C-alpha cells in the first residue's frame, strides 16, 4: 500500500508562535512496521536538540514518534532546541534522576549546534608519561587521559559519554551524527548559513561528524551515521520537500523528512541489540 500524504497543507501554530504552513504526518502502513523485533516494548531515551525536541520544531510529527509506530517502542524525550553536546551531559543527568536505570537504550542526536556556534574541536586526550609494570619490569610509557570539559567538542563528548558509561552500564547507548545543514533565517539576528560555509573556527560540519565517529569508536558504542545514510540533502532544491520552509528554514526536517529519518534509524536499530539489562 502506498503512503497517503495529504495533498493540501495544514494550517498549524509553529514553534515560534506564528501561523505556519505544515506538512502533515505520513500515514505509517502495517507492512512497514517491524513490531516483532528485539525492540518491541523497549524503553528508549532520546537526547538531543531541536530535531528531537518534543515541541516539534518545524514538523508536525517527530522521528521518534514514527519510531514508536514502526518498532513499538516507548520513547522518553529529553532533547531541547538549541542544545549542544555540553547540554547532553545535563540531559543525561536528568534522565538518570527521573528514570534511574529503568531504560533499555539511549540515543544521542546532537552536534549541529556545536558546529554552528563555533565550538573549538579540541582533543580527546592529554598525553604524559607514566611508569608501569611490563612483564615484571618497571618501564616508562606514554599515557593518555581523557579530557572532560565543556569548552571543546571532544571534551563535551567525553564528559557526557563518561557519565553515561558509568551510570548506564547495561544500556545500549547509540550516537547519531547530525544531518546535513541547510540555510536558516529565524530573525534578523539569527541567520545561519548552510554547511558550505565554514564556521568561525574555519571548520565545516564534516569535521564535527568525523569527531563523533571517533568518539563512538573510543567509547565502544554503535554509531548511526545520519549525515551519510539519511539521504536528506537540503542544499538540493529537490529535497526541500523534506524541510520546514524553503526560504527561511532548510535546517529542520518537516514531517516527511522526519519520516525518512525514522525509516533510516529503524533499519539501523534492527541490526543492533536493544539493550543488555539482566534480571
Helix segment tally: 7
Instruction: Give the DSSP E fraction (strand runs of 2 or more residues).
Output: 15-25%
Number of strands: 13
Helix content: 25-40%
Output mean pLDDT: 93
Helical/strand content category: alpha/beta
> Would you identify the regions where 5 or more consecutive residues have pLDDT less than 50?
1-20
The description of the largest β-sheet is: 5 strands, parallel
Oligomer: single chain
Biggest sheet: strand arrangement: 4-3-5-8-11
Spatial gap, N to C terminus: 41 Å
> What is the N-to-C succession of helices and strands?
EEEHEHEHEEHEEEHEHEEH
**Bulk shape:** globular
- Using only CA atoms, what is the Rg? 20 Å
Question: Outline of this structure?
Answer:
With 279 residues, this protein is α/β, with parallel strands linked by helices. The protein has 7 helices and 13 strands.
